[in-house]
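Case study 2.
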Amino acid sequence: MSESPLLAQLASWASQLDARDAPDRVVAHLRSQLLSQLAAARAGYGHPLGAKIGQAYGSPLQDDPERAAHSLAMATICLDFDDTAYAGHLSHSCVNVPLVYARPLGLDGRRLATAILAANECAARITAAATLGPFRGQAAGHTHLAGAVAGRLRAEGARADTWVNALGLAFTTPTWTLPRGFLTTDAKLYTAAVPVRIGLGACDGARAGLSGPADVLEHPQGFLHRFAALSLPEEVVGGLGTLWYTQTLSYKVHPGSAYLSAAIDCAAQLHSEVRELRVDDIEEVVVEGSLFTSGLDRLTRSESIGPRSSVAALNFSVPYNVATALLTGSLEPADLAPPDVARPERWALAARVRTVHDPALSRAALLGTAPLGQALRRAGRRAAGWAGSAGREAVDALPPDWLAPADDFRWATKDLGARVTVRLRDGRELRAERRAAVGAAGSTDGPGHEELARRKFLRCGGKPEVAELVENLAELDPSEVQRLVELALGDLGEGVPRRVHPGRPAAADSDSWTGEPEPSRLRKPEAMWDTAGLESAYDGLFRAMASRIGIGSGAEAGGGAGGEVDRALAHLALGDRLLADTARQVLDGAAAPVLDNSAATDPAAIDALIAAADRAVLAELVRRNAAELVGLLARTPARRRSADVRVRLVNGAGEELFGGAVPWGEIVRMRAEEQLPGHAARINSLDEGTS
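Prediction:
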């Protein structure tokens, strides 16, 4: 019997999904994503370009939800102030569509969160399946076909067969973005808005009985065949319910391309050192970045970007954004509009900015989960062929093909780092560098995403009451959700006639809404393993690791030399691999789970791993294996803590130190409370001379 089509598998899961099914850390991202997207909407409508959007398409609170979603998608994309995930700029559909349907459907907070979650997971997975192709980021309009369909149909509580038909209809006519208008004009505004309307129209058709092809993604004449140079259909349905793509979100604190965010952060950091200088005191500004940054710079320099350029062009300009942050200490939406955009000193300094490719930063970028790392790992050996078509820089930066894709995203990373050097005419040099942008997934410094989203929303003129409502999203009743939406968006896109939709959508039917709790439960859900202590211990370890990995050219590009830091990382990676194997045995209910640490202490095994991987790869392997271990424990019933594990411990010389049965809970406790803090302290204490 053949396996069911990808859309059928995805729809069967997503149509039943409830926000209560997701871990707390995933729901926390939903709250931050919502608040950050509301900030992007406020910034967009507040810009002169947003006034034109409101005039053309109306308010986000108009009675026609399809047109409201169109307007809102244009406003949230117009300043490139939206957040990113692996894979895709999800929120223009995944947040906006549930938002505009929340009032007419009478959604409460849990249903709103559920609709956003379902949309995120569907849109990110389909986008990831085609991410090794011609379209990524905002140019990947097909993200919003899935986001619009899933966001609306989950809010409405539609059946899985309706989802399949709607998605099949939508993906039969995906949009194809042309770089000519996208990079240089306001045409970029339509890259999300048009697919949103296609997706919502497909929902109407499917509800009326129109059929779409269930195999439209994987068919030889289907979507992935046309939109992916190297298709990854496994991404669509792999790890449903355990691999949460919502956890890969990165949050922008500046408007502009994510490829520039770290460079802007560095420039803002240097502002205090250059604020008293004149532009003529600066010889040049050198921005070192990954292939993503240098490639974007090459692409945009041919367009002669200046003060009269489109907002889209300004968003992609390395010189203008870096110069502005150096001179002002930040980059704000107002910097993309007159009078600030026309200030001559900014353009005088921008003329002295040049961009240099740093191969080590490219290696770090492709090791991260986003924007491509997970896809490259999924592709394995096939990735080399794809990278060859992308150029030598991509080939040289590829992670090893043996590095397995993550099966848990709790420690996802987006390491698009940068280094900014200001060279003064008196011979001095000022420098700042970052492994990742502020707010990027996996960033180990700066505020958490909850605080960043709140600051962003308030900075964009949002009311504190909205932030408080979002903080309690899952507990809000329909009237409170309506108040949230109206307070956040009610004063935006005004000054135009409201257009009344001739047939408002039906309200959500609580009897058919598949996420509604059962009238009664015969038993309480089983208590699951609490992984908070173990996660905290790994967080401490990762902070110690971050100080030893290096940034850019300071990191080794070849196989490791076998220093003490490298040996510690290799030992940790091998040890967690063994613990994850044992955790899977315990989760599966094996009669006699086994843990033998000999493969993690064997000097030959450690040497072999170091020879195959530089320090950055070793660190990524530690994160990947730790996430797998913790993910397995999080799915393990708490009662399995008492399961006896047959343990054999040996030292580096192969001498047995211990043999016997130990409760699994005690093994995990020792890992969290003794071993990981000990490894972190040791890594922190090591001299660079030993590495």
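The radius of gyration is 25 Å.
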